[in-house]
Amino acid sequence: MKVQEGYPVWEFKSRIHDLEETPLHSAVKNMVGAKLNYMKPQELIYKATTWEEADKKFPILEHHTEQFAKKLIYNHIPRQDFNNKVFLERELSLDGFFMKPDVCILDADFQPHSIFEIIVTSKPDIKKLIALIEGKVNVVFIYAEDVVIDLSRNFNIHRNWGNLFKCFTGWSAKDSLMTKISRAIDMLIADKFPAKNHEILGKTIKKHGNLYKLFIKTDHRDWHLHQGSKQGKPTSTLNALLKYYAEHIDASTEEVHYDDTTMTVEFVVGRTINKFGPFHIGTIVKASQGTRTLFTNREAAIINKTNYHNISDGETVRFVCGTGNYGKNGYYNYYANHLANGKDSLDKIWELK
Q: Would you say the pTM of this structure is higher than 0.70?
């Protein structure tokens, strides 16, 4: 097919007031299915005459960066001809879990090759997500609102679809468990603050009681508890996925305290008054939240509420304190809630990249 030629007509029906599927969902599902079915190598990469030649040009990187482009469909699935291998709403089994993906590609043995989920109002539940994560299948998530304009306007323009054929995120069947979980979480929180409007620079999981909480770092804000995790129920898909990951991956420890109201201080004791329990007067050499330094070299008094009271004058101690200042006597006064020395006092965290 030449790049100026059109596709065969692909006819589909859309139901109005169908509780199971919106018209937007139906339109995007059919356009994605048609594009996968008819895509040619020269549409993906200009002047590529074979899929092998197009494959040499991948992975496509983000514009003006050297980063892997997570939002391009053909960076998550093999670059090859899928004609007559694309199916809509076909029931299949992933290791015994039956599902009916919006769009799927089957291999020569009619086994699942790639699965595409179109998201408008609902997202996969935890059982389906785990089946997708554990299955040997490529997975792509597409937020319909994000792609419908490009698909509609450019559908019959048969060039540059490597950059036009977008999804929200996805993973290859060979990706690590960390990558799959991380991108599944991206998909779950994409329509909530701050994933939709800010770039997420880091994600970690921290256990709080019986719950596993998601902490994120964005281009506009340092580490903080994600709003969806804060308000989510233990049985929510997000919290269930965090728990699943924590139970499958060993935790590590780090001296990062994510609460915006706390800070880690390196404190040099000058003298101690024991009138109301240990009350240390000295200097905070450095106060920080994660990798961010709040201030340095501040005269302060620490009200010691930890179980470490035998501190000598001149000793350097690391505390976790509230950021609020309680001083009225010329010093900055802070409550030390617990030690930040040694691994026993550090938080267990699970990293996601």
A: yes
